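W.,

You were right to be curious about this one. When I first looked at the sequence I had no strong expectations either way, so I just let the prediction run and decided to look at it fresh. Below is the sequence, 196 residues in total, followed by the output.
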Amino acid sequence: MKPSFDDLDASASSAGPALGLLEIGSIAEGFAAADRVVKAAPVRLLLCRPASPGKQLVLFAGEVAAVTSALRAGSEGLSQPPLDTLLLPQADPAVVVALGSAGRKVRFDAAGVVECATVATLLVAADVAVKTAEVDLVTIRAAVGLGGKSFFVCGGEVSQVRAAVHAAAGFARSRNHLVAEVVLAQPHRDLDLWLA
């Protein structure tokens, strides 16, 4: 059964920055879907790559209406429904920045880690985290070398990190995609590089 984007159209505002994601079970079909996405609407392709275990991630940004159209077009023609989809209107810019920020030097008062079964759920959970509490979204690792799972790391004051992780994990749990959550109060300095 193909996903329905009617609910997305009704719940999203017609303008504003948005992220769209298709997680597709076939790498080859994923490239074809990415081609349909960028041809269907004025969106910017942010990511188009294989990920564990043998799926394709297609992440793009644009106005809500354009992203909705692109999601619909990308899903059409697939032999199987996407593994997961995402329409995230008014995405916090920190989500996109964290996707490309692995390895930067950070010192943590507290660190929170949320691990999810799908990239789509993880991206929304990360957005929920930064909109719930005053935390820095340090990094997002999306499925590569992780058996299809994804995780994000956030940092800040202990109470803020706890609030962010609680909210993000609650969202992921509601979709049955939460793998694990942890808050590290004053993590050892040797972990700083590995958490970032």
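Here's what jumped out at me. The helical segments are 6-11, 27-40, 64-75, 93-99, 119-132, 158-174, 192-195. And, maybe more interesting for your project: The chain has two domains: 6-89, 93-195.

Coffee later to discuss?

I.
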